[in-house]
Amino acid sequence: MKTTGSTLAAILGLVSSATAHYTFDKLLLNDQQVGGDNTYIRRHDNGYMPIKFKEAPQGSISPLDADFACNKGATGAPEVITVKAGDKIGLRQAFLADGIQHPGPSQMYISPVSDAKTDTGSGEWYKIHQSLICRQGSPESLRTDAWCSWNENNVWGVIPSTIPNGQYLLRGEHIGLHGAHDGQAEFYVSCAQIEVTGNDAAGTTIPGESTRFPGGYQPGDAAVNFSVWGRETAYPVPPGPDVIPGGTIRGSADGAGGDELRTVPVQGGFSSDGSSSTGNDANTPSHSSSPSSSPAPTPSAAPSDGASDDSHGGKGKGKCPGAFPRRAAALLAAKMDAQAE
Ligand SMILES: [Cu+2]
Questions:
Q1: Distance (Å) from CA 249 to ligand 1 centroid
Q2: 22 or 2: which leads in pLDDT
Q3: N or C: which end of the chain has fewer CB within 10 A?
Q4: One CATH from 1.10.10.60, 2.70.50.70, 1.10.10.10, 3.40.50.150 for 23-321
Q5: Could you report the per-residue pLDDT of 263-290, keeping only the tens digit for each?
Q6: Percent of the chain beyond pLDDT 90?
Q7: Ligand 1 centre from 282 Cα, in Å?
Q8: How many angstroms is it from 322 CA to the middle of ligand 1?
Q9: How many angstroms is it from 176 CA to the middle of ligand 1?
Q10: 16 CA to middle of ligand 1, Å?
């Protein structure tokens, strides 16, 4: 692999700011890595930098930019991975990043495409997985290990039985909320190329709501203006559309059920055991067990919970916790240099 200018710039950015940034480049299928770096996951030009609405790192993009679907300048990967319903699929962090240490949700979306190697991701996206809070706790833990994804090195989900056979782009995303109180949520995004097989009973359409990227997230969304620096112990405002029927939700808005993986019920009798879902549970499982399904907190609510910008330390609080060590960044730079020889 050649060291590119943009990669070097990303490394220098890491060294100078020493933040815990990362990207995803390795595919995990049922917890085993398949292929190498970027065999199935699209390479992009954003290095380890986050995407942000506001004060994005130099050279990065906004969630409102055309490349938000698969990250800046993403190009087709050489291979498409074949998967089936029930497979656990993960997008693992790249070199020297070994555990997400940003508080926030992980999500997976799919977009049906005719050719997963060339499609740009401008079509409809359906959310197949959402990972929220796995450990019920305190306002302090909402800033760290209350989140299911805390310290995990990949964003993962499960292939639903409800989606038609065919090729898809699979978009893995983690959203860091540590700066969200200031409109600076950090989006880490990569796309894998998959082909779903064996879902002959799934019909020809994908159930549930869809969205588009860019467009799916807006700067004023409660989900990405949520403050983890106040007294909240729940996150009742997951970003984007609901998880589709047959998709999975890990944890919950307040962590009450622990680290639990639930499948969103299918309405209208698709499920093979003939059980039919009832009531609102089926529509909003991520909210149903939570006492916090009250209206979403808004950015302007922050001062009223005692967390004004001044009281929580101003600029320091928005910084990435769990700093990416300077030493590790230097090692990364050295490795990249060696590979460029
Ligand atoms: Cu960060």
A1: 24
A2: 22
A3: C
A4: 2.70.50.70
A5: 999 976 544 433 333 333 333 333 333 3
A6: 71
A7: 34
A8: 9
A9: 7
A10: 13
Alpha-helical regions (H) of the chain: 5-17, 285-288, 326-340
315: helix, strand or coil: helix
CA of 13 to the centre of ligand 1 (A): 12
329 confidence band (pLDDT: 50, 70, 90): very low
Is the confidence at residue 17, as pLDDT, over 50? Answer: no
Place of tokens 């050279």: 59
pTM > 0.90: no
Distance CA 85, CA 62 (A): 33
Q: Is the pLDDT of residue 182 over 70?
A: yes
Q: Which residues contact 58 (CB under 8 A, 6 or more apart)?
A: 9, 13
* CA 174 to ligand 1 center in whole angstroms: 11
Distance 320 CA to ligand 1 centre (A): 4
- Tell me how far apart the alpha carbons of residues 226 and 224 are, in angstroms, rounded to a whole number: 6
According to CATH, where is 2.70.50.70 located in the chain? 23-321
Query: Region 321-334: what's the mean pLDDT?
Result: 46
